[in-house]
Amino acid sequence: MNLSPRSTKIPDYLDFFGLRDHPFRITPDTDYFYPSPAHQAALEALRYGILRREGFLVLTGEPGVGKTLLIRMLFEGLPPEVQTAMILTPTLGPEELLEVILEDLGLSGAGSRERLIRRFRDRLFELAEKGHTLLLVIDEAQNLPPESLEELRLLSNFETEKGKLLQILLSGQPALEERLRSPELSQLAQRVTVWERLRPLTREEIGDYVRFRLARAGGAGVMLARGTERELERLSGGIPRVINKIMDRALLVAFARGSHRLHPALIREAASVAALPSVPGYRRRVWLWGAVVVGMLLMGVLVYVFLLGG
After folding, report:
1. pTM assigned to the model
2. Pick from 156, 216, 173: which is nearest to 33 by CA?
3. Average pLDDT by stretches of 10, the chain with 310 residues
């Protein structure tokens, strides 16, 4: 049986809502960067630290809060004299880390540790002669072995009279903060000049975030009923990646029903089938409510036993 092109087309909601693009993709896209006060402040602080050649910088936040997107925005706003390198596999030992850094810079990553360091140092001085510096970004840095973090501290010693030849941005989850505060990494922590933590969005910011992304996608054909932002906050914990997953599914559900209006019940339905990750804030609320319920049950049992004893 032959199927017409129309019958094989995947159902989509773009035309229905008057959108040019899918506004809630979970992949980082700088066109959809929402400058919440926390995100904008972190972006400006990191850019300032890099341009002043201040050595170590740290960016932390829960998974999905927008660290990778912020780093991409940072790259776009840096002047051409700042060369960038990004390491995405931070479970490497010291020598492996050096090899990967050199390969990212277009250099051979083979040889002894001494040769690798010499090669890296020579590249830094080559950049310095041109008036350039290197920004090295380590993503998911909470997974770096202590020996590799110490190696980065030693690499940061390369400098001239005008400042550091190398800036290092460690980006990771809150566990990175705990590691950097450990006694064994105290020397590295003392060198951190910019330390930014991204927080989840507030309820008001969630509403602005959703409308911002819809507007960027070119459409205003989506209406948010009262209580929708509150429900999104409850189910997402204010994590942008989770909001995106819920909203994308909610638009699909609304499209299937021929409705331009999103309401709390529809958001709950979308969240129930969106394969959501565990959200720290949501887990805390569930635990608290569970504790309250258990406490009330225990109180009821004690009262019952007391009355029987009387």
Report:
1. 0.82
2. 216
3. 45 86 94 96 95 90 96 95 87 88 83 87 91 93 91 86 86 94 90 94 96 89 92 96 96 93 94 70 41 47 50
